[in-house]
């Protein structure tokens, strides 16, 4: 079993400034997994704290196999028991992501953490772009995890691809 948790925080362009940033500070952090996770090859716990819902977290669980991870811009493959996790090119307006990139290879029982942030456009007309922003925290485990695994345990691998979304740049780290 592969266990994935994606925690997203979403906000509008109007909420970019300090008072709104303070309201969402700390929201993009690990959450407890639901007490009863469905069976499946890949189980995804998706949590969204949206400005439009006053940052009240909304979560759901899906269990649809390896293809479901593509919705998270991830490509998963298993090689001799090791889970290989690659990031697929995304559809965000910024930062543009070219080809796939290896995030990590997880041995059985290991956890990987991937952090990223994005600026998305809601419209297709460049004359009137309407932006929204998301901060992502994704935990991926090669195996079934306890309810508090992502909260109480440090990951074995960590990749941070966050950038400055409002201009400038932050160097990605591994």
How would the blueprint of this fold be written?
Blueprint: E1 2-12, H1 18-24, E2 42-50, E3 58-63, E4 74-79, E5 82-87, E6 101-106, E7 111-121, E8 131-142, H2 149-152, E9 157-160
Parallel strand pairs: 1-2, 7-9
Antiparallel strand pairs: 1-8, 2-3, 4-5, 5-6, 7-8
Overview of the structural elements:
The structure is a single chain. The protein is mainly β. The protein has one domain. The chain is built from two helices and nine strands. The strands form two sheets. The chain has a six-stranded mixed sheet with strand order 3-2-1-8-7-9, with no helix packed on it. A three-stranded antiparallel sheet has the order 4-5-6, with no helix packed on it. Helix 1 links the parallel strand 1 and strand 2.
Quick structural gist:
The chain is mainly beta and 174 residues long. It has two helices and nine strands, in the order E-H-E-E-E-E-E-E-E-H-E. A six-stranded mixed beta sheet has the order 3-2-1-8-7-9, with no helix packed on it. A three-stranded antiparallel beta sheet has the order 4-5-6, with no helix packed on it.
How would a textbook summarize the main sheet? 6 strands, mixed
Beta-strand fraction estimate = 35-45%
> What is the rounded Rg?
16 Å
Give a count of the beta strands, DSSP E runs of length 2 or more: 9
Q: Structural class, from secondary structure content?
A: mainly beta
Return the string of H and E elements.
Answer: EHEEEEEEEHE
Overall average pLDDT: 85
Q: Which consecutive residue ranges, at least 5 long each, have pLDDT under 50?
A: 168-174
